[in-house]
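I'll show a sample.
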Amino acid sequence: MLDIEYKKALAEHLNIDDLNMLSSIVGEDEFKIILSNLNNNSYSPDAIKTNSFCANLHCHTVFSDGNSNAGEILDNALEFAQKRNNYKLPFIIGITDHDTIDGCIKILNILKTNYEKYKLLKIVLGIEISTTEKSLEYLNNTLDIHTLFYCINPFDRKLINFINKKANLKYELAQKTLKNLKSVLYKDLKKLNIKLSLQEAAKIHPMILKGQDEISHPLKKYLFAKMLFSYYVENNKNLITRLKRKNIETSLLSYEQPVKAYKKLFNNERYFFIYKNVLEKYISNLFQESISLPEIPNWLYLALLKAKSICEQSHPHPCIENKLDAFSPFLETLEFLSQQQYGLISIAHPARINTKNINIPAEIFFNDLFLNFTKYGKEKAYAYEKYYQSYTSDKSKLLCSDIDAAAAKYHLHPTGGIDSHGNNVYTR
């Protein structure tokens, strides 16, 4: 059996004696062997028909921002494993929730009571840590870099303390930011008859209540959507009357519904303009006729800009001395992870790093990124997410050749994933 010491450490916390109950759990040695046998088709849901699809090392559960619980993820992965039972490679699944190891602990408890059911699976316990970097000299804005940590011990006290400390600080910062928004925007919010809360913000971004991921972007999305929905719908008597005549369900008249209906159309930079356009589409669909909304009035536009400015103060910036301890600096986090007894580090979706925030060519940047990755992560810095199924934009595809060249220079191993948030392991 591979990775015996790792499995012994897990078994001790699970209070079990039989290591065969953890045969599905993948440690570092087995992880390296499995990776060496995988290729693009292994990670691609397009290869389902040929049964080549056998790996998704980037899955989220309800413990962060996924729709499925840990058991549902395992059961869906098991369907593929059973179809591939005669194939050499098993189906390998990675649980990588944002900034929490609760999903991994749930997986272990499921195996403790029913390990035979999942013996065809290979399961990697992991976490996606939301790291930022603002100290590199060539930055004109903060880099948000997500760090995947595979084959972890979710019972490790140092790792738990690190995660919990950041989560508590982020939640406190979110509360403080919301309080500031209420104060500065008091007149505008009163005019729109709006009361803000993190609970309501969680309808768009559930992790805001858990101290996970970011604060600025989720709160901007919440404020922009809430204020525009209130102006165009909730405070529009004529529209409300027409909606009631149409017997539209009240559950459909909530600010987050247009976001969910047209999620793929959004980005952070033009969020409130996009929301207005999406709201038109959403209302038109409810009415089954074309509805045109007037332009955003100047007073509301200015209020949205104020909200944007306040929210952005809750995110680290290289040109502003806002020491935000809630965030995990990329290089410092690598140093911390390099000292863990178990685990291998990978950079999540590097082609999604916002290269607008750097002032050097992409080729030089990725070379420096991986240099620092291996310098601070030491022997734990093992991989990068090469086969990422959401690399659909032309920009991402262009960056991939620079990323692959830099990764090869520093002997990093390719991994892949779908970044699943839904009800299965083959779609995002």
